Amino acid sequence: MFVRNERFQDYVKLYPVITTIAAIHTVLFAIGSIPFFPRQWLFHTLAGVNIYIDQGEYWRLVTPIFIHMDFSHYIFNTISLLLFGPPLEQMLGKRLFIALYLVCGISANLFTFLLLPLTYIHVGSSGAIFGLFGFYSAMVAARKITARQSVQLILPLVIIALFMTFIQPGVNVVGHIFGLLTGLVIGLLSMKKLHSFK
Questions:
Q1: Which residues form the Peptidase S54 rhomboid domain (predicted)?
Q2: Catalytic residue among 176, 190, 195, 196
């Protein structure tokens, strides 16, 4: 289910949404890494700065999903998307996958804004990625994933991801938790319309 053995060209054709999101991650990270490019301007314009959201800059609930703090942050989230996104894009289709991904990411950023101080700054697609984990958890709970190996991978993965959320310094715990919960709720509400997935 999560083993990717497609050629690059085939992957791009099969999963255009995931490829596009990963490309956006990469382009923005590359631009922000250019020595002579005003990285602070890019970060200042797109980051989720709670005090600016409070002042009406609501695009900051969306744009943080696509930028990352450093290389390890960028590579972990992008690889997670490339590995765990394809089954859902295949199952849901392009439009519904985009909706799921964005709603989970925006929800994570919204609750970060509502529950954390106005001085808090947040970036990264972790909330959206955790939303995918939440959706998978709903599928497991509803027995929509029937392959034993996939079930045995998903549950430990979610548990480890949550554990790391609480022990790693500087992690947006609120964003991770509410991204996960949003994906879980959407998944549970969608289960009747989904076919079993092996």
A1: 56-191
A2: 176
- 90-106 per-position pLDDT tens digit: 989 999 999 999 999 99
Domains of the chain, by residue range, sit at 8-191
Query: What is the assigned CATH class of domain 8-191?
Result: mainly alpha
Closest CA to 134 of 115, 110, 154, 114: 154
Active-site hit among 107, 125, 126, 150 = 126
Report the pLDDT value the prediction gives residue 157, as an integer from 0 to 100: 75
Q: For residue 27, what are the contacts with CB-CB under 8 A and spacing of at least 6?
A: none
Which residues fall within 8 angstroms of residue 96, CB to CB, at 6 or more apart? none
- Is 137 in the active site? no
Contact 71, 59 (CB under 8 A): no
